[in-house]
Design a protein that fits this description.
Shape: elongated
Number of strands: 0
Largest sheet: none
Length: 158
């Protein structure tokens, strides 16, 4: 392949990857109620699943202090375009996270023809392992925010 053929192949891989991120971002933008109501602002409601588990644990241990009855806070946006820009930013981030396995697969499809067979065999399953590690890291990062909230509640109760 000539240099221009490589650039053409790279261009199509980049276009497919960017279009996947765009599709997932538009889907996240449309699914605003689920993204904000369940994923992002789920811990702001007393019926959040972690709070229910804590309450069940409190009932099992006969300590009602672990039950969260109210969450006294108000979320405010003090900028004129704050809600819309948050909606756009969160849609793009959700689109990037959801499209990452396909994005990495496109990168791998561009790189793998340049590898020797031995190198390609050594990297077998790279897309699966990189994608699963990325998604598990995103999950740990996302849930660590809620663990801090639960820890603060437990310290306040104790």
């Amino acid at each position: 392949m000539s240099f221009l053929d490589h650039l053409e192949a790279l261009r199509w891989h980049i276009l497919r990857a960017v279009s996947a991120v765009l599709i997932f971002s538009v889907a996240a933008f449309i699914a605003k109620d689920f993204i904000f109501g369940v994923l992002i602002l789920g811990p702001s409601k007393v019926d959040f699943w972690t709070y229910r588990v804590l309450c069940d644990l409190g009932n099992f241990l006969n300590t009602p202090a672990l039950c969260i009855d109210q969450l006294p806070f108000t979320i405010q946006s003090r900028q004129m375009t704050g809600q819309f820009s948050m909606h756009m930013t969160s849609s793009i981030v959700v689109g990037l996270v959801a499209a990452f396995p396909y994005l990495f697969w496109e990168v791998w499809r561009f790189i793998s023809p340049g590898l020797y067979e031995k190198e390609r065999g050594a990297a077998r399953g790279a897309v699966f392992f990189v994608s699963s590690l990325f998604l598990s890291g995103a999950d740990v990062n996302f849930t660590s925010i809620f663990k801090v909230d639960i820890y603060n509640h437990l310290v306040w109760v104790l």
